[in-house]
Target: Enolase-phosphatase E1
Amino acid sequence: MSVQVAARWVVLDIEGTLTATSQVHVVLYDYARPRLGLWIDAHSDDPVVAGAVAQVKADAGLGEPAGTAEVVAVLHGWMDADRKATPLKTLQGLIWSDGYARGELTTDYFADVVPALRSWRDRGLGLAVFSSGSVAGQIASFSNTTSGDLRGLFAHHFDTVNAGPKRERDSYEKIADGLGATAAEIVFFSDVPAELDAATAAGWRTVGVARAGEPFADADFGTHPVVSTFDDVELEVIA
Ligand SMILES: CSCCC(=O)C(=O)COP(=O)(O)O
Ligand SMILES: [Mg+2]
Model:
C-alpha cells in the first residue's frame, strides 16, 4: 500500500533504511575491527583521535594509563553490542573514510533507493541524512557506491555530534533549525520506531521503513505510516 506525504525536506536514516543492516554490521564493522588499534597508534597526535580515545576511557571507566589494547577491547565490545557510542562512531568514520578513499569499500543500497532519491531531488525536495554514523563516515559512504558517487545528492548531514542521539526529540529540533525548516515541512524515514517517535514529538512527519528480512521488519510502528520500499512513497513537494 502506498503512503502519501507532503514535505520540503526528506531526512533519511542509513542502516536498515537505505542499506541492509549487514552492510553496516558485517561489511563496515568487519573492516573497522582489525584496524582500530593500528589507527589509534598511528594517529595519536590527531586531536580528534586523542579526544575519542579519552572519551572511550572515561565512558568505560578505564584508568588513564590504559593502553590501546584495552581501549580496542572496549570498542570491540561496543561493536558486538551495536552500541552507537559517539567516540566509536568517530573512530569508525575515520577508518571507513580511508577505506573508501582506497577503493576497498563500496556501499550497496536497496534497489529502490537511488532511483527514489534522484527523483525526489529532481522534483525539488532537499535531501539530508541523520545517522548514528559520523558525518565523515556518512559522506565517505556515499562517495563510492554501486551507483557511483552520490555525495552531491545530499544538502546536509547530521550525526550524534552535530544533532544528538536519534531517540531524543531535541536532536530533531536542532536538525530543523539547521535546515531552516518548520517541523511540518520535514519527513523522516527510518526503520526504528523509537527514532520515528522522537521525530514525531518534534512535530515532524514520519514514514517507517519495514524492509523484508531486516531486524525491524516486524516491529510495531504504532501510528507511523509504513512502507517496505520507497516505490510505495508518494511525495508531494511543499512549495
Ligand atoms: C557509513 S555510515 C555508517 C552507519 C553507522 O555506523 C551506523 O551505526 C548506522 O546507524 P543508523 O543511525 O544509520 O541506523
Ligand atoms: Mg536505521
Observations:
- The mean pLDDT is 97.
- The chain has two domains: 3-19+107-237, 26-101.
- The first strand starts at residue 3 and ends at 7.
